[in-house]
Write a structure and sequence with these properties.
By secondary structure, the protein is α/β, with parallel strands linked by helices. It is built from 19 helices and 8 strands.
């Protein structure tokens, strides 16, 4: 049995239950305390079997963020999921969905009729991504002008960006070039950080996937100042999960794209963008893993510096996408209930910025508002500034 630090420290305060987004919308969900530390204690004593509805946990980790004694609640639930029995068809479905690097190799598979996935338990109502129009072009080529950048920065290309959002990678590379850096996409082939497998309770598969990706990334870090991430879940996985649970480290700093821009851009960069006419109201949505790691602050702080209108935080906890969660038939209702909250709290239409591709698809479908990565928004503003100059 895998052991965790502070696994037995639960004081039964139930703050984790209060923080749980699923518990608020699903009356059948037992909650993180029951599925995590309570169950784990009984299981270690040989007095408990896997509980019903354990797979309904999104692994958002907001419960862990709320815990005053640092119990790894979501990770205990992941162990619970690992021990729960599944039908063969759902086991096959989960194995496929927890290897998104395979889909990123052949993104055109999402064009197949959705009904083909129904027998496996794949939702036919959740919006799927579309293959990037740049996917078949020269892959992930950066925009740098010769001689304009001398310092090298790695960009971790997550599964979603590789298969479905090359525009964000190109935009991020262009923004980094404006800051004086040459962007190096890595790893060179399609890999996954392991987050999808861990969230579904496939802990052994998560570690094998992480170790494979770690080897591929380490080979490319020589001469890099840092590695920038474009996806909040991958960022937290590389920076926190890898060293804490798998003993894996990267020899250079790992920083989210937004934090890197805030830290490295000079005042002139922000002055060039700030106050451009015609900007819409901007909502910022920090994903669950971003909230756990950094709160709401980074993306909102960036938009405060560059947006003509004061930005607004999208006041929801989890949007319901949660990686592959919303693509599973049994979770569709909960996922949509969580996401619909976004439209309810928006005072007026606007652009939603978030650093997760699956969150962006989910929120755009449910709110009808354009939802994009902050790198694409910044790059668009830079191009507007050049046109107006």
């Amino acid at each position: 049995m895998k052991r965790f630090e502070y696994e037995d420290a639960c004081i039964k305060c139930s703050l984790c239950v209060t923080a749980c987004p699923v518990y608020r919308v699903d009356q059948q969900f037992p909650g993180p305390k029951a599925l995590g530390p309570d169950w784990y204690r009984h299981y270690q004593a040989g007095e408990a079997k896997p509980m019903e509805h354990v797979s309904d946990c999104t692994f958002c980790q907001l419960c862990e963020s709320a815990c005053p004694v640092d119990v790894p609640i979501a990770h205990l639930i992941a162990v619970h999921k690992e021990l729960a029995s599944q039908s063969p068809r759902l086991a096959v479905r989960d194995y496929l969905l927890t290897h998104p690097q395979w889909l990123a190799m052949v993104p055109s598979l999402v064009k197949l009729p959705k009904q083909l996935g129904v027998p496996l338990g794949i939702s036919s109502s959740t919006q799927w991504p579309a293959p990037s129009p740049l996917q078949r072009s020269r892959r992930h080529r950066t925009h740098q002008r010769q001689g304009s950048a001398t310092r090298r920065i790695g960009i971790f290309v997550d599964c979603f960006t590789r298969g479905f959002d090359s525009e964000t990678l190109l935009a991020a590379s262009a923004v980094l070039e404006e800051l004086g850096y040459t962007a190096v996409p890595l790893p060179s082939a399609s890999h996954c950080c392991g987050a999808a497998a861990y969230a579904s309770g496939l802990l052994g598969e998560a570690e094998r996937t992480a170790r494979s990706t770690h080897r591929a990334v380490r080979r490319m870090t020589s001469g890099l100042e840092a590695v920038v991430t474009l996806n909040a879940t991958c960022d937290d996985t590389l920076r926190v999960e890898w060293p804490r649970y798998f003993g894996l480290t990267i020899p250079v700093p790992i920083l989210p794209f937004v934090d890197f821009v805030l830290d490295r851009a000079n005042p002139g960069f922000f002055e060039r963008i700030h106050g451009l006419p015609g900007q819409e109201l901007i909502y910022t949505h920090a994903t669950c893993r971003s909230k756990v790691a950094r709160g709401e602050g980074s993306l909102f702080a960036l938009m405060e510096r560059v947006s003509e209108r004061p930005p607004q935080i999208l006041e929801i906890s989890c949007c319901g996408a949660a990686g592959s969660y919303a693509f599973k038939t049994e979770h569709t209702k909960v996922a949509r209930a969580l996401g619909h909250r976004a439209k309810e709290v928006m005072g007026e239409p606007g652009i939603i910025l978030t650093d997760s591709g699956t969150c962006a698809i989910h929120l755009q479908e449910l709110t009808g508002c354009q939802t994009i990565h902050p790198a694409r928004w910044l790059h668009g503003q830079l191009k507007r500034q050049e046109v107006l100059r």
